[in-house]
């Protein structure tokens, strides 16, 4: 009878799980963020760490991003994942 050697199991490196600090999702053209609903045309305050808060108007809400227009007319987008991770935060103005 042959003896079996110790089982060698290849260990996978730990997977980095990104924790979602904030609740954020889009639903039927609306954005749900930290217990508040946001819709197109609303004025919001966008806060990014280490930057001054910015006022903006929501122009489009898609399944994974929110487009907004600043007072100077420039347009930008936030990914919903950025809101979930806390890179940006928004609130009603």
TrEMBL record:
A single GO BP: regulation of gene expression
Any single GO CC term annotated in Swiss-Prot or TrEMBL for this entry: nucleoplasm
PANTHER family cross-referenced by the UniProt entry: BREAST CANCER METASTASIS-SUPPRESSOR 1
Compartmental location: Nucleus
Residue ranges, compositional bias (Basic and acidic residues): 9-20
Disordered: annotated segments: 1-20
Keywords in alphabetical order: Nucleus, Repressor, Transcription, Transcription regulation
Main localization of the protein described in the UniProt heading: nucleus
Domain of life of the source: Eukaryota
Family annotation (InterPro entries): Sds3
The protein's name: BRMS1 like transcriptional repressor
């Amino acid at each position: 009878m042959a003896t079996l050697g110790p089982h060698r199991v290849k260990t996978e490196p730990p997977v980095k799980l990104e924790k979602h600090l904030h609740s954020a999702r889009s639903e039927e053209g609306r954005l749900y963020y930290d217990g508040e609903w946001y819709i197109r045309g609303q004025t919001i305050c966008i806060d990014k760490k280490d930057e001054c808060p910015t006022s903006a108007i929501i122009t489009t809400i898609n399944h994974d991003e929110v487009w907004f227009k600043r007072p100077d007319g420039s347009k930008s987008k936030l990914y919903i994942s950025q809101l979930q991770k806390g890179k940006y935060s928004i609130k009603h103005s």
